[in-house]
Amino acid sequence: MNAFEIIGGKKLKGEITPQGAKNEALQIISAVLLTDKKITISNIPDIKDVNKLIELLGDLGVAIERLNKDTYTFEAKNINLDFFQSDVFKTKGGGLRGSIMIVGPLLARFGKAAIPKPGGDKIGRRRLDTHFLGFEKLGAKFVYDSKKAFFNVDATNLKGAYILLDEASVTGTANIVMAAVLAKGTTTIYNAACEPYLQQLCKMLNRMGAQISGIGSNLLTIEGVKKLDGTEHKMLPDMIEIGSFIGLAAMTESEITIKNVQYDELGVIPEVFKKLGIKLERRGDDIFVPSQKHYELDTFIDGSILTLADAPWPGFTPDLLSIILVVATQARGNVLIHQKMFESRLFFVDKLIDMGAQIILCDPHRATVNGIDKKYKLRGISMTSPDIRAGVSLLIAALSAEGTSTIYNIEQIERGYQDIDTRLRALGAQIKRVEGSGPSH
């Protein structure tokens, strides 16, 4: 097991460019299965979850060519549908949560698919019902084999339908959209997710010949077409990385410029960081965060303690709530962090408490942070990363802390963040990769 060893308390300085968006990549790359024509995708992040999905597509028979570090061409001409029944597929598909995203396109184009029960983050139950209920409404029939933990899906006659989603699931919406673009007739998806990633997918599908209207709203209308063509697509920068770097700058009193952020696609993210008292400036399409000794949490207008909560887009993304929590530990003032959308995502706060943060974990969904206004620094400890976002939050805490920290299970961090140690070293961070078996308890 690899670990990061971090000597904290150093001010950082310089420019950093966010990678392509992980959550967009899993949808966009799956969409290449909808056509036998060539699709070129650029700004693909070089991270484990994305690379595993690309490998899975190669195993399925997609012809893949890597043009440079972040650009690939995909041609899904000769798909081997028998691969679904192989042990290789069961192993690879089960170890990657994003593998669920290939089901919609395969149903649409070939009328059948299969999927092992996916793995991924340990952040509570993340149901797949939305995906399957949507496919069922379009006319798919699926059978779950509980002994093998395997779904077989038959969709030889997909027809457009009115679908009211029980939750505005991003991956669920994306999967149903991909299944519906080649279905007969009109599909209407109400309570659809409207994240920028999903808008990107819909725009790409329209360039391929799909007929999707209502993009950016929670009501999508899809007129089914017979076939789709190839296209070129450039992915957005990862908004979670952008938010992470803003938090990193504030915690370490660093002057950092975050390059090419596609500012207009960031929604409320910059405003939420401003509520923590963090100064940031838009400079063209860059964000400049000046070195800041102190930052003070807002209160509500009546003076009561601020509550920050996640919500479906255009609300605040749940993936940045753990970053907000860490940054609040060094602010002046108090805040209630309310993680509404996932269970168990706040369980990493015990590590922050060990580092000297003042946090009360009220229940699995809420934590009250008493900001210590940098009166003393957090202290370095040994800890283990439970999931991608908590892992980066702990990394930010370690970079701001006094002394040496060791973070184990960094494979979790590297599922979502490309070359993170190299890029942070370029800003002056003291971080190195070491071999380790994990902290003793």
From TrEMBL:
GO terms for cellular component: cytoplasm. SUPFAM superfamilies: EPT/RTPC-like. Keywords: Cell cycle, Cell division, Cell shape, Cell wall biogenesis/degradation, Cytoplasm, Peptidoglycan synthesis, Transferase. Phosphoenolpyruvate binds at residues 22-23. It is an enzyme of class 2 (transferase). UDP-N-acetyl-alpha-D-glucosamine binds at residues 97, 319, 341. Residues 8-421 form the Enolpyruvate transferase domain. Gene3D superfamilies: Enolpyruvate transferase domain. Belongs to the EPSP synthase family. MurA subfamily. Cell wall formation. Adds enolpyruvyl to UDP-N-acetylglucosamine. This is UDP-N-acetylglucosamine 1-carboxyvinyltransferase. The lineage of its organism: Bacteria, Pseudomonadati, Bacteroidota, Sphingobacteriia, Sphingobacteriales.
